[in-house]
């Protein structure tokens, strides 16, 4: 039986599982919470409490997906189980990274061959984690994800309750990706494995963040949220770090090598779909 071991079974991995389970796959997902374990079980996923012994799951897994964020010691699973992971014999391994590994390009374009020059600690940790996974000699595929949105991660609630602000930093653009497109890229890679491949996973339309909020307001018939200059905006350190980098990310490789046709090629399509299904 095809068995996916999902290390850090979060938002994107759940979207992939929704595609695999109806096709007869077995999905094992790690979690640190007993309550979340019950929720996973209700979705048809076999929970594996972490930290724990991954040995049996590693032995049974035909496919492995790692999506947990790295910590100070690098990837949290490899920090404790690198040797056991290296002994596994899966057909396919996927690592979910971030386009933050490219650093700041002042709005310029990047692709998978662009040098990795991260400007944030988060980006540097991702580069280190990518290299940790590459060093294991497994049939690894790296997926560098742009900003993720989808059900439960849309802008409509903040626009409706009046807390949304359009933070304006001249020249700032972000690339994005709907979670269902992440899932279809991963599924396509599983069907057409290419060990060693690296893929940018983003839509076709990098755009300023204030445009996205403005369009969300337009869709629900509300005025655009107020504009706030970046230098005056109150933001968490995490939010401010996103604005430290501006780039446009190319996605040609997922189309040319995996045959992917994006479900939501831009944020307008994605937001319309979210609104149609309840926001």
TrEMBL record:
Residues 86-202 form the NAD-dependent epimerase/dehydratase domain. The keyword Transmembrane helix does not apply. It comes from Cereibacter azotoformans. CDD domains: SDR_a4. InterPro entries: Epimerase_deHydtase, NAD(P)-bd_dom_sf. Keywords: NAD. This is Nucleoside-diphosphate-sugar epimerase. It comes from the Bacteria.
